[in-house]
Design a protein that fits this description.
Elements: E1 2-10, H1 20-35, H2 37-44, E2 53-60, E3 64-65, H3 81-86, E4 89-90, H4 92-96, E5 113-120, E6 139-146, E7 149-155, H5 162-175, E8 188-190, E9 194-195, E10 205-208, E11 219-223, E12 226-229, E13 247-250, E14 255-258, E15 266-271, E16 282-291
Antiparallel strand pairs: 1-7, 1-8, 1-9, 2-7, 3-4, 5-6, 10-14, 10-16, 11-14, 12-13, 15-16
Length: 299
């Protein structure tokens, strides 16, 4: 499989965070709209055994997240916990070579990710009141403003070509990503897809780039923060029962250690059975970035 990266430039606020599993679901809809339902079903027919596409979270331009590891393994000053929590970004080279001391804050790399609450109110257009009793009942929704953001795609070009990926991603950029796209949220432009060369390190330790399922993965050790996905159906499937069953995953930035050194590109599995629709598939896979061996002996 081949790793690609594109950089998106948001042209509106977002109402949904750029998480890899959500992006994959949105890409499936974009593939259906762009290439047809038959093409999507063909791609998903072998998804359990070998994914045709794995999508990462959105990251600050030219940076990746600091791995989820104890402070002493990150060589952090334990007296500066507040500052350490703000230093969340590393270059690819620093990550792979364990130069965690070079971690940067959003401010240091001019990365913008501002969250704000927008107060709204629903109106019944038959009565022109907020509800049947006429009581004013405002509610708030979170919006996210972003600067340029990198997204990685691990692609099996024997099943899904780069041209097909670009066309489908263009569709997604035009229809909008995530919640409230119908009122102008989640729109973006994107740069040319470029192949990413990862330094070939002989190691059994890797970091994930999206939420993933670590179940039955032959792991010797792992460090992660849990992430619960409360998913919803999109497009016409949301007209019946929009809600899916919750899924427990290991969040982005998890560090996994295999029993032996391997040249792995991804980890995880496809997830099914969480929806009332049999064909629904969730990305439980994640792209892996190899990092040099750490000393876990004293844990």
């Amino acid at each position: 499989m081949t790793l690609y990266k594109t950089t998106i430039t948001p042209i509106s606020n977002f109402a949904t965070s750029l998480k890899g599993d959500t992006l994959f679901g949105q890409m499936c809809w974009a593939i259906r709209y762009t290439l047809g339902e038959a093409k999507l079903e063909e791609l998903l027919s072998s998804y359990d055994e070998s994914p045709f596409l794995i999508v990462s979270d959105g990251f600050a331009k030219n940076h990746l997240p600091k791995p989820t590891l104890p402070s002493y393994l990150l060589n952090e000053n334990l007296e500066n916990k507040k500052e350490n929590r703000k230093k969340i970004w590393l270059s690819l080279s620093d990550l792979q070579n364990l130069n965690f001391i070079n971690a940067k804050t959003d401010l240091e790399i001019n990365n913008i990710k501002n969250r704000s609450l927008v107060v709204k109110n629903s109106i019944n257009y038959k009565t022109f009141m907020t509800d049947n009793s006429g009581v004013f009942a405002p509610y708030s929704e979170e919006e996210i403003s972003l600067s340029k953001t990198d997204i990685y795609f691990l692609l099996d070009k024997t099943k899904f070509s780069l041209e097909e990926l670009q066309k489908s991603f263009l569709t997604l950029s035009k229809i909008g990503y995530g919640k409230n796209s119908s009122i102008g949220k989640g729109f973006f432009e994107f740069e040319e897809f470029k192949e990413v060369k990862i330094e070939n390190i002989s190691t059994n330790i890797f970091m994930t780039l999206s939420p993933s399922s670590l179940e039955n993965q032959d792991l010797k050790e792992c460090f992660y923060e849990p992430f619960t996905r409360f998913g919803k159906h999109g497009a016409m499937l949301s007209n019946s029962n929009p809600f899916k069953k919750p899924i427990l995953l290991a969040n982005t930035g998890s560090v996994v250690m295999f029993e032996r050194k391997e040249n792995k590109q991804y980890i995880g599995k496809s997830i099914k059975g969480h929806s009332s629709f049999d064909k629904t598939v969730h990305q439980g896979y994640s792209i892996l970035i190899p990092i040099k061996e750490l000393n876990f002996e004293n844990i």
